[in-house]
Structures are given as structure tokens and as C-alpha cells.
Amino acid sequence: METLLGPEAAALFASYEEPKAVGLRTNPLKTDPETLARALPFETTPVPWCETGLSCDAETAAAAAPGKHPYHAAGLYYMQEPSAMYPAAQLGAEPGERVLDLCAAPGGKTTHLGGAMAGRGLLVANEYEAKRAKALSENVERLGLTNCLVLNETPERLAARLPGFFDRILVDAPCSGEGMFRKDPEAASYWSEAHVAACARTQGAVLDAAFAMLKEGGTLVYSTCTFSPEENERAIEALLSRFPDLEPLPLPHAFGVSAGVPAWSATGDERLARTARLWPHRVRGEGHFAAKLVKRGEAPPAAAPAKKSAAGSGPSRQQLALYRAFEAQALAGTIDGDFLLLGAQLYRLPDECPALAGLRVVRPGLHLGELKKDRFEPNHALALALPAERFRHRYELRDAGERAVDAYLRGETLPSDGDRGWLAVTYDGYPLGWGKESKGTIKNFYPKGLRRIGAL
Ligand SMILES: C[S@@+](CC[C@H](N)C(=O)[O-])C[C@H]1O[C@@H](n2cnc3c(N)ncnc32)[C@H](O)[C@@H]1O
Fold first, then answer.
1. Where are the active-site residues found (predicted)?
2. Using one digit for the tens of pLDDT, what is the confidence trace for 46-93?
3. Is 342 among the domain residues?
4. Which of 126, 288, 300, 412 has a beta carbon 3.0–4.6 Å from 278's, enabling a disulfide?
């Protein structure tokens, strides 16, 4: 770092003694940053490079535990350190587009993109490591994304299946993580020069796959949370030399965000100054790099979307009738589109969903629920995907006494005096999950794996 930064390195090193900033990115599918900031029981400040970003200091976060607040369980926000909010904000994903997050777990940037897409179009969130894909899928569920296909694929296999398919692709690459050493000191123990070189090789292969999947005119954002030029300016320089029809686009350099450094590349290509670096001593956040590129050349013909998927089939008329009977009891309005039945699990596929046969699918869109012998049981994902007004019946925990929220999140039965069937259990008007009211009690359907355990 001293070689790269000269005298400024001292300020970088000093920043490691400063407390880290904690970030919360508002989920625009459920609320807006002003409403959230007013409702949270602690002070936050806006993150200047992300419209939906809020941050607070580490001490406040330690006292207030925002990850344990019922608003978090309701998917109103995603905990994400402020610099990590920069890359997805730059991709420009819009409702109705086909968007890929190629290295997606645990889903910080996927949920950011999903918010920008407002439930319309196709968002493919892919993760290479199976275990991490599970956490990704849970976050997609909690934030209520309805148009997201979660996959557990290698970039190469995906590129072979979906050439020229996407309008926008985010590659938030696996990297040596130098920018996270303050947030996660253990990450420093993995660092070596050989690791940096190995990461750079992987990044090259992942970028090749991303390029193959990008449409003509499509946009690619590449990001890392490391400082090494080999994984940043030089990775983009090498990409531009492999694919001259990619053109770097200027990223915003306001609020302490700096330009990438052409002098740190092999050729000194001035266009590398259009990339962005977030340094922990210049911004309130950790270390990050981002580059944005547009594909000017001709893409291979796009794989056509397939409505019916050979990985499963649509429900039969009787099965659909069971779902519709549930819907008539529990929901206002209907959910329409292409349905997919995987075993007994019913999903609504995102629009423009590609054929799924042969792909490792973790979540094929909105999980509606499970077909039992003669009835339909809704999935937690459905409760989190709809606003309170879409439920015919609701049970508001704030009206039910101080202990009710904790009781529900622990999986306890709730007292009531009705017999209304399926209802949304809400906190402050935001659905937290399902309950089933029958003869004076509400059976708890908050998923076992998410329940609070132990003392508060
Ligand atoms: C920086 S993390 C992604 C963070 C995520 N975008 C977020 O915002 O929450 C990079 C991801 O790449 C995955 N990965 C590891 N090796 C990979 C490879 N060879 N190809 C693609 N992805 C890989 C890692 O498992 C990790 O989840």
C-alpha cells in the first residue's frame, strides 16, 4: 500500500483504528428511506451514493441490534456496509429488464437490484457455492422479491446456456478482500500474494462468462472489495484487451469516491480513470472498486425464454383449484402468470424465465406454497412478498401487547377470538409471516429455522 499510495498510505492505515460504519439499505419494495429512518428507534444518516442507503455508527448498532428488529424480519432493510451499496446502484437495472447477478451470495446486491426492478422483469441471482446459495435464497425471500430465479451454477455452465441473454450483469467477484480487513479482521489471515494472483485468474474467467451472456448494448458492472490493482484496474485492462467492443463508462466520483488509477495498469489506459475506488480513509465505508462497461459489439443470438420448463410442470386443474380456494379465502386479488410445480411445491415463475432443465435451481421465482392432499398451505415467501392490504385477514402484533412480537417470532401460538383461517401476522402494518386462526387461537407458521431462540 505504501508503494501504491505513497504518503497517503498513513491515512489508510490510520482508518483501521477508526470504528467501522454500519449500513442498512432500505427495501423499496416495502418502504422508503425517510419512512424507515423515522420509524427506527436509533439515529441514521443517508449514504450519499445510494438513494436507499442509511448508516449509523458501530456503537449505535451494537446497542440497537438492527439485525434483530422486527422490521428486519419483515424485510424492510438489508444490513450492508455503505461502500457495498455503490456497485449495484451503478448498474441501472430497471423494471422489465433481464438482469443477472453472477456472484450473488449472500444477496446484498441481488436485493438491491430486486428493489430497483420493482418486481417486473427477470432477475437471475446465481451463486457458485451451494451453502452460500441457501443464504442468498433466504434473503431473496425475506426482502420479498417476486421476480428472482436463484441458481447454484458455475459461470461457465450458465454462459453455455444463456449466451447474449441479459440486458445487465453484475459481477461482484470473489476477491482477496483487502477492503474488508477492518470489518472482518479474520479475512486478513487468508491474504497472500499467491491468493491475489489466484483471485485475478478466477475473475478473468468469471468476466469471460459474463461477457458471453451480455446482449449487444448491454451493461456490465464489475466490483471487488479489494485494493490490489491486479484484481481491479488490471482485471479491466485485461478484459478490454480480450473484448475491444467493451467500452468503459464513467462512474460518479463524488462524496469522496475516487477515480481508478490508470498508472497502476500495464498500459496506462486513461479510460481506467472512469472506474471508481472507495477508500476507507476518504469515505464513510470500507474499501471497494467498481467499473462499468457497455458492450458495443454484436452478441450471439439470445436464447429464447421458455415459459414451460422441463424441470417441472404446471399444476393440474385440481391442484390449481386448491391454490385458488386458498387464495379466495386469504388474499385480495389473484396471482397470475406461469406456475411451476416442483414435487408438491408450487411457484410462480418470473416473466421471461429461461428453460430450467439441467440447471441447479434453488428458487424458481415466487414460492407460493405446498399442495397437501386436499388443501394448499402457503409458504413464508408469499407472506413476505405481498403488502398488508393484499391479505383479507390480518393480526397486528403491536395491538396485541408488548410480548406478542417476541412470542410470534419464537413460534408460539397467539390468542385470538376469531375463526378466520389463514391471515398475515403483521408488525406495524408489515407482514412478518403466516398464522392460521381457528376457534380462538392462531397457529404459528413462522418458519422453524428463522425462529428466535434463547433470551432476548
Ligand atoms: C464478493 S462475494 C459476493 C457478495 C454478494 N454479491 C453480495 O453483495 O452479497 C463473491 C461470491 O463469489 C462466489 N464465488 C467463489 N468462487 C467463484 C467462482 N469461481 N465463480 C463464481 N463465483 C464464485 C463466492 O462464493 C461468493 O459468494
1. 225 (nucleophile)
2. 999 999 999 999 999 999 999 999 999 999 999 999 999 999 999 999
3. no
4. 288
